[in-house]
Amino acid sequence: MMRKVMIIVNPGSGDNQGEEYGKQLADFLNGKFDQVDIKKTEGDNDALKFAQEACQDHYDSLFTVGGDGTINEAVNGIAGQDYRPTLGFFPAGTNNTFAQLFNISEDIDQYIEDLDLEESHSLDIGRCNDQYFNYYVCFGKLIEATTGTSSEEKSQFGSFAYLKNILSALPKDDTHPIKIVSDSESFEGQASHVFVLLTNQVGNLVFSNEQSNLQDGQFQVYILTDESTGAKLSALKDILFGQLEDNDSIKSFACSKLTITNSDDNETQVDIDGNDGPYLPCEIELLPKHINFYVPKTQAVQ
């Protein structure tokens, strides 16, 4: 049977080098597959539609060249299908927070050298109402600050590159009266931030030293219950040192299914993998080992 691979390219990614990166990846894959097709995005949901096409036409593999948004669209395109190709991704976006979980190189030559087509890993994903996610669902200004930090800043300053954006975001936070019901624990009260993570970190920020990875069938849920600036600074310190489970203003637990609802009439929108998600209420469910991903040689699943 002919082996087919599709490459979805965001031409504007990588400082408008996305198309060139796609060609380099295609040159490599031409020696591994019988058919290599490149699809270029031009607008919202193009990557989603191309990914659906890859499922319908039974492509063996699907690669994206772009940022977190392109990966998320591809995941949404294949997650609901009966047949799902193995997914790989070259991080050519501004932040590339998902790729950091696997230490995937942002250099195309190194990425190709590290790519192992003989091995893939079945990873958990989540579903929030009718949208899928491969990383997180949350609300609160801290996530905007962490995912809005550029790759250049992170490369130069490490975890402390997040400080400037986070500190500027803290005074702008609102608290929300919410109710969370899960298959393990419940919460009702005021919260300025809620993180529902498929692992225990966002980018290079490790929330907890507790063991967690993308194959354990559990969400890690963190709720910041105190709206004071002091509590937020304390939480920030513990995020930087991976000790959130010891913070008195943080409620944390693991679960595989939960609902989050507003306790008042205000509208609260969630963030999904760095993109606008639905407004509360949200029903969130983990889909264990739902999609096969190519992971670089020697890299463990985080």
From TrEMBL:
Cofactor(s) the protein needs: Mg(2+)
Keywords, alphabetical: ATP-binding, Kinase, Lipid biosynthesis, Lipid metabolism, Magnesium, Metal-binding, Nucleotide-binding, Phospholipid biosynthesis, Phospholipid metabolism, Transferase
GO BP annotation list: phospholipid biosynthetic process
Pfam family for this entry, one: YegS_C
PROSITE patterns: DAGK
SUPFAM superfamilies xref list: NAD kinase/diacylglycerol kinase-like
Gene Ontology cellular-component terms listed: plasma membrane
SMART domains: DAGKc
InterPro entries the record matches: ATP-NAD_kinase_N, Diacylglycerol/lipid_kinase, Diacylglycerol_kinase_cat_dom, Lipid_Phosphate_FormReg, NAD/diacylglycerol_kinase_sf, YegS/DAGK_C
Molecular function GO terms recorded: ATP binding; ATP-dependent diacylglycerol kinase activity; metal ion binding
Coiled-coil features, chain-numbered ranges: none
Family: Belongs to the diacylglycerol/lipid kinase family.
PANTHER family: LIPID KINASE YEGS (PTHR12358:SF106), SPHINGOSINE KINASE (PTHR12358)
Listed name of the protein: Diacylglycerol kinase family lipid kinase
Species, as recorded: Aerococcus urinae
